[in-house]
Structures are given as C-alpha cells and as structure tokens.
Amino acid sequence: MDELEPPALGYQVAKYRRMLKISGEELAARAGLGLTRSVIANLENGRKRDVTVQQLIALALVLGVSPADLVFDLRRPYDLVPLGDTSAPESYASTTTGQVLARSWFGGSRLASEMSYRTTVQGPDDADDLSPLHVSDDAYKLTLIQKLLDQRASAAYALAAHEQHLLDVDRAASRGEVIRGGFLPNDLDTLRIRVRDFRAELYEVDRQLRSYGVAIDEPILYPGVPF
Fold first, then answer.
1. Model-level pTM?
2. How buried is residue 62: exposed, middle or buried, by Cβ count under 10 Å (0-12/13-18/19+)?
3. Distance between CA 92 and CA 95 in Å, rounded?
4. How far apart are CA 114 and CA 182, in angstroms?
5. Which of 109, 195, 206, 192 is nearest to 151 (CA)?
C-alpha cells in the first residue's frame, strides 16, 4: 500500500464539479457561506487546503455527494492516508490508515479504533493495531446507537411493507381473488409470522435505544429513494 499526502479536498471538489458540468463561480454561488469563485479556484489548484465544516457540508450538498467523498477518494481504497499531525508520534490526534477505513470513520460508521488495519501479507501474530488510538465509552455508545437506529429504520420499513401486503392479501382472499407477483409472499400464515417477527425486532431495538437515553418517540425518518 502506498502512503499518500493528506486527502486533497480541492481535487475531489474539482472532480465532482466537472462531473456536474458547472463552473466554480456557479458552485460558489449555490453553496454560499462565504465561498467565492476565487476560493473554489484556490481549493482546486491546491493553494487553499481547508474549509469550515459548514462550507464542506454545503459543497457536498451542491455536488450531490457525501462530505466524506470530498475528503477521501475510494478509487484507491487501500492506499494509506495520514490523518492529523503524524509528525507527533505520541499524539492521540493522528494516525495513518487506508482510505476506505478513514472514509467509514469520517462518515460515522466506524470507531477511531477500527481504523487500525491488518493486510493479507501480515502473519497471524503481527499486531493489527498499528495506530493505537484512545476510544472512550461514549464513542462506542454513539456507534452502537447509530447501528441501532439503522436497524430500527430497516425493521420499521419492512414491518410497514409486510403489514400492508398482509392487508391486501387478506382482502383479496376474502373476495376469492389471488394476488400474483411481487417480492413478498402471498401466504397469510407466512406473512403473519413475518409481521410478528418484525414487531418483536422493533420492540427489542426500541428497548435498547431507550436504555441509552435516545429520544425515539418521534416519527421514523426514512432515506429518500435515490432515483
């Protein structure tokens, strides 16, 4: 694996801007937050290497990508990238890891400790924690909460789909009709079992989330369909 320079934000901005076929001036105007054509130009040619968090989010929204996609390039997922001040070897605020792991951490789906890595050329006795980082209990808790929220959304979506299909099949059966096709079973007993299982899963996930103090008594938010 090759070690790269710190992630080149400007290169990623330029790449996605060109894919959208918009000018730097148009990108700046849409993003706002103090971004100008000259700021975009300086980002893209490397003279400027940083933006505020809000500006990063705005750029990602305009370009139609995740903020993580502007920081890391997954075309070379196993290249190593230094994060933080790697010139201070004793610092907890630095590490070197693969682009794919760094992007997952940046996007909130991995802990900092999960950015340590093992390659297929390492032996089984080699240390896999090449970049030790301090991880608090709160960080573990936040990652678990995110996974539980994702599971909750998936279970609730599946439950709603099965409940509606059960209702449709039940109505059709009462009229002597048959529902054909689709991705869900048309057997009433099978549907009832699945509905029961999804309700049980949702109940358990909600119980765990409440134990972490998560406010879940609000409508569940589903991601939009990306097409």
1. 0.60
2. buried
3. 8
4. 40
5. 206
122's tokens: 């390492």
Q: What is the pLDDT averaged over residues 76-91?
A: 72
Q: What percent of the chain has a predicted confidence (pLDDT) above 90?
A: 30
β-partners of residue 224 are none
Residue type at 92? Y
User: How does 170-189 read in b/e, with b if 16+ C-beta sit within 10 Å?
Assistant: eeeeeeeeeeeeeebebeee
DSSP conformation class of 201: H
Residue pair 74/99 in contact by the 8 Å Cβ criterion: yes
Is 192 strand, coil or helix? helix
H/E element, 94? strand 94-98
Q: Assess contact for 94 and 104: CB atoms under 8 A.
A: no
Q: Are 46 and 52 in contact (CB under 8 A)?
A: no
**C-alpha angle 100-6-81 in degrees, rounded to nearest 5:** 35
Distance CA 25, CA 172 (A): 58
Label residue 29 by pLDDT band (50, 70, 90). very high
CA dihedral 106, 107, 109, 110 (to 10 degrees): -10
Report the length, in residues, of the chain: 227
Could you give phi then psi for residue 176, rounded to 5 degrees? 75, 20
Question: At 224, phi and psi to the nearest 5?
Answer: -70, 155
- pLDDT exceeds cutoff 90 at 23: yes
Amino acid making up residue 119: T
